[in-house]
Task: structure prediction
Amino acid sequence: PTYGNINKTERNLPQHNLDLPFPEGRTGRYVKFSNQIVGLGWNNVLNEVLLNSHLAWRAKRSYVFQPYEWRQWYFPWNVTTWTPHTPLNALIAGPTAGGPWSANDPSPRAISETWFDTACPPEDTFTIEAVTAKNPVREHNADEVMEYWVKLLDEHPSRCINVVSGQGDDFPQTFDLWTVSTPRILPLWDEFRKSPVSRLLRTAPIVNAAIKNNEEVFFPPKSLSSFSRFNGMMGIHLRRGDYASACQDLADWNSTFYMWNLLPGLPDPLNSGPPVQGESAWGKNTVENYALYRRRCFPTEEELVTKIMESKLDWETGSEEREKLKTLYIMTNAKEEWLDAFRARMIEEGWETVATTSDLWLDSDQLAVSMAVDMDIARRAALFVGNGWSSMSSNIVHRRLVDGHSYDSIRFW
Result:
């Protein structure tokens, strides 16, 4: 994929102008998070991008957005001699990717990584090493981490700040793994869901186009073309394949659900007992917990069928105003042979249409953002069933709740 038009749009953003008045231009205040994670799945990156964007907005600085850097074997094509990158505006739209804030919001707009080098020459840029700067708030709740960094960046006299990793920290991110993957993230939810970073987050045009072009895959041809057709859809996030080993690791460490999947009030919370006690039992769990994690993280076909049909019934009987669910959309990495048999089973269970990730017709530009296409279909669906340990499911939960979907429209295996 070339993304020629998207790259051109990013280069020509109106805020890329040194003559603009404060808080933009050559007198503006900027922050680049060079400590952002790279080379992981898109949703691990998206978590941090949005949190850092909100932090920059609160600190009254322009957020410096960066392209998504792939791990080579995640990329849809076989590449070995170079590292693929996808422009952020191919994946999301809104203020985090350089779009405008609300009309009454004077905050500086986000700029591209390339423009940062122009707006912030080395002599004007102060470097903060996260490995040291994080020390006062390590193991603190996310709201305390946010307040600490807001104060640091807002009060710092330097016009331009570059936050780098430093040495000696395996998780040097501003909001690191130990923050986002535990209940420590939850005190930040109310602030974050109300933030313009969340409220103005939009679907990238290329993703919208992909969904529009594939409507006949998951809707009967004679049905009306409108967003309301998603009121009859259930979207499910079904991880298979290599996720079996990941589920084993999660069980070994008695890991909680991930990020916004932990929100109180969501149905189907994880209620695991304590792991094996004692120093010699480090990284081991109980027989009961291993069974629970296997069932919730990597359910069997029969367990999948039961959960899908029970969730469908709960949704349809929860309100007389709700439409019957007729379309099942499966976001999955499952092999085609297994998926074909599972699709047939779902048709036998009464679903009129069953569509999957592999059914979508995508051009090369859209194929490289297919994860964002899947996510947006799940965002729109009336009912969503996700994997509680998944960053993808967590980001879908975030978008759905900000959009106004009810808590009971979100279920977990």
Q: What stands out?
A: The chain has 17 helices and 14 strands. The longest strand covers residues 233-238. The mean pLDDT is 94. The first helix runs from residue 4 to 11.
